[in-house]
Amino acid sequence: MKRYVLTGGPGSGKSTLILSLELSGEYVTKEGATDYIQACHKKGIEKPWMMEDFQLRILEICLEREANIPPSIERVFHDRGIPDGLAYQAPGTEIYRKIQAAAARSSYDTIFLVGLLDTVETNKIRRENEEDAKRLEDKFMQIYREHGYEPVFIGKGTVEERVSEIKRYLSNHYKES
User: Lesser CB count within 10 Å: N end or C end of the chain?
Assistant: First the structure.
């Protein structure tokens, strides 16, 4: 199974790209944080990211989603990889160590770093501003490099252009793509 990660700062459009890939017939795993935040909001928890174990819950969701990919799937696109959680957790904490251990066990074929768009809109789920988003984009690049990957940068463009860029990269680097 080939495993590809789309990562990037909040508001980069990566979840829209994942949806487009899914609609084109690709197997995808959705971002755990968005689903967890929405579930917490339904329970009346306004700011679940303030909970001490928030990143641990996200890690558990991501690990479960990755473990439940059917073995017949030839390739999968992940909306964020396990190492992404390291950008949101303070180093030295027990949760950071758990994310780090899980990240060390994870293996991906290609990391696509989806560049930021012109504006970052905040909402009930995305609370980061443009400065935060740029800082996180840089952090994701650093984290994946520290884990032995050289992320492929996907620049600005329409959803169709960006998906084409991803698929073109894959067809040039992997025979089955």
Answer: N
In DSSP terms, 112 is beta-bridged to 6, 152
Tokens 């957790």 — which residue? Answer: 89
The whole-angstrom distance between residue 104's C-alpha and the CA centroid of its chain comes to: 16
CATH of the domain at 90: 3.40.50.300
- The pTM assigned to this predicted structure is 0.90
124 token code pair? 């009930």
Crossing angle between the packed helical segments 54-67 and 94-105, to the nearest 10 degrees: 20
pLDDT digits (tens, 9 = 90+) for 136-154: 999 999 999 999 999 999 9
The residues near 50 (Cβ < 8 Å, ≥ 6 apart) are: none
Nearest to 62 by CA among 92, 82, 88, 34: 82
Token code pair at residue 110:
């290609």
What is the DSSP-derived secondary structure letter of residue 151? P
pLDDT tens digits, one per residue of 25-60: 999 999 999 899 989 999 999 889 889 999 999 999
Owning domain of residue 112: 2-173
The number of folded domains in the chain is 1
